[in-house]
Predict the structure.
Amino acid sequence: MRSAQGGVGVFTHAVLMAIPITIAVAVGCSSGDDDGEDGAGTTETTAVEDVVVDADDFKPLPDLTAVRGFFVDNVAGDLEGSLAVANDSEGGTYPVGTVIQLIPQEAMVKRAPGFDPDSNDWEFFTLDVTAAGTTIVTRGGSEVINRFSGTSCAGCHSAAEPQFDFVCEDDHGCAPLPVGDDVITAIQNADPRPRR
């Protein structure tokens, strides 16, 4: 070991060499959370939590938000996001938890990516509604049948232009319903469930 007069001692030399190495390792191992990247130049993504609805999640139509003749809700708490897409003339992808209803007896609910790629991850429902509440009659994909046309809900909605995320309106590419707006309005107004 050399004295202080002759230069740096072995121990001091080892410590001085270890400091920059320790700093380099610490910087290299940092998570990169500050910039949203994982260190490899790719952005990290968070899995979207799915929703599974039950009969109590379907509210009376007057408790939902009306948009051009249909009604919107979001059981995951993102009503603002659902309404932003519904009101955007360019379309968009609805957030998970979006509920869309034209009439009290039918609904579609947006599920998490991967739920059913064939239906853009929408789950379709037929409902029985009474003054006592809502009962789910059928739920699923292509096996759920539309009350007006007698055909698959998913089949009809698949005709919607891609930017409208499987949601049918008069100008979205879907075939028109075999009943007029006056009949649909009468069915909507006859929702027997009491407001919450």
